[in-house]
Amino acid sequence: MRSLELFSGAGGLAKGLELAGFKHSAFVEFNKHACSSLAVNFEPDKVFFGDIKDFDLNSVGVVDIVAGGPPCQPFSLGGKHQANQDNRDMFPFAIQAVEELTPKAFVFENVKGLLRPSFADYFEYIILRLTYPSFTAKSDMAWEEHLVHLQKVDKFHYDGIKYDVNFKLINAADYGVPQTRERVVIVGIRSDIGESWSFPEATHSEDRLIWDMHVTSDYWKRHNVEESCRPPVADSMRKKATRLRNRFGFLEPDLQPWRTVRDALQGVPDPNEKHDIKDHVFKKGARIYPGHTGSDFDWPSKTIKAGAHGVPGGENMIRFSDGSVRYLSTFEAKRIQTFPDSFIIKGAWSEAMRQLGNAVPVLLAEIIGNKLREMLNHALTSTQSHVNLDSSKNRQSIPSTRSGFTVDQITHKKAA
Q1: Is 72 a catalytic residue?
Q2: Catalytic residue among 1, 4, 38, 72
């Protein structure tokens, strides 16, 4: 199955989909450093370095899925919160790709801020545009007016391409990523595929980590950490452990424990020690200041961040039980974002961290990709079985090009 990667960044989503069995048709990326990372890890002749406005969608042929992470700064909780008024809002181009290529499915990822109440109308507009991609508006029509028409689309006898669209706020830690990273994932399945999407069930939990740490001590035993070397336990954590013990008794909580920074970096030497890991370099200057305290070594990392005005180094740190801190190396940040150790991130530390901060965790992308591939394969098998059982009935095909409907034309059609 073939995929088109839009707003590819360093390739976290792309790598996960590749591990799930998808073949890449092209990568579209505006940042030169990210393009360098893509070129060295994937097929360089498939990397388009430039503005998506200049990319020829027709050049990729048939693709099964369109995937990507439209730039998140317009919706970031730490940004200017301008949404559609921000010229970095690339959702219209993601929608255009779906409209023109009519893939079997699409998957887009964005920041939690996309669900802010102040963005509610525009988020609804995004979802409806992805649901009815052929329901286009005149060039001079404001999105607010187009939204009103989209909310009444059934009245316009719409018979263009349609997608079953679902979204969910996902915490990557719940899927085995050693990082509490919350992101909105949007998945659409073309309606003629005949499959209903549901997000993969969580595999890891905070409850189980607390249980393993403070009820059975299995976490510490796994890492051979003596009791005298364990960090002090806060009263709030003791209370959580007590509630879990009362709730579960002798039965441990379901799922696996959240993975911690210690779990992720097991076997990795200190960057100051002698080693041959090229991107595992010690960086000076780490310090704690208000709001930037780093990530506890024995807890999932805080979100690896890119930052709107440079990398927020105060958050991209490890905080050890003795209170000391140091910056994550690029190699360590790759581990936390579940990139393969062999994956190369081009650029100096700050640029590499920016790319990693913008990336989708590879493991999460692979889990979603696996479910997408299984679903699409099941749909293909079902279709072939139907054809074999009754070859006299041809399954109606969906148009391969945009229908060309506009709000005015559909309204006129209804009036006629």
Answers
A1: yes
A2: 72
